[in-house]
Amino acid sequence: MPYKPLDPDQLSTLNALYLAPVPQLWSGEIAGIADILVRRKLAEKIGHPKGYVITDLGRIRLLGTLRAKWS
């Protein structure tokens, strides 16, 4: 089955995930997809209660989730 082309928002999200250094702070829809409670607690500690801190492991998990969601 061929993959659907990604829209510009999806491409910019993937670019940020791949190219930006970790840890990364995310909020909004991406935070809902990466629902990792431990990471949310870390974000709360640094003053971003609605964000998630993404580490290398979180990035791998998130990329897998996005791939499944967008395929």
Characterise this structure.
The protein starts with 7 loop residues before the first helix and ends with a helix. It has 71 residues and is mostly helical. 58% of the residues lie in helices and 8% in strands. The chain is elongated. Strands 1-2 form a two-stranded antiparallel sheet. The protein has one domain. The protein has helices at 8-19, 29-33, 37-45, 56-70, and strands at residues 24-26, 52-54. It contains four helices and two strands.
Described by strand count, sense and barrel closure, the largest sheet is:
2 strands, antiparallel
Number of individual domains: 1
Q: Looking at the structure, what is the overall shape? A: elongated
Taking the alpha carbons of the first and last residues, their distance comes to 9 Å
How many helical stretches? 4
What's the order of the H and E elements?
A: HEHHEH
Portion of residues within helices: 55-70%
Arrangement of strands in the largest sheet: 1-2
Structural class: mainly alpha
> How much of the polypeptide forms β-strand, as a percent range?
5-15%
Radius of gyration: 12 Å
The residue ranges in which pLDDT falls below 50 over 5 or more consecutive positions are none
The mean pLDDT is 65
Per DSSP E runs of 2 or more residues, the count of β-strands stands at 2
Protein name: Cytoplasmic protein
Strand and helix layout:
Blueprint: H1 8-19, E1 24-26, H2 29-33, H3 37-45, E2 52-54, H4 56-70
Question: Which properties best describe this structure?
Answer:
71 residues; mainly alpha; 4 helices; 58% helix; Cytoplasmic protein
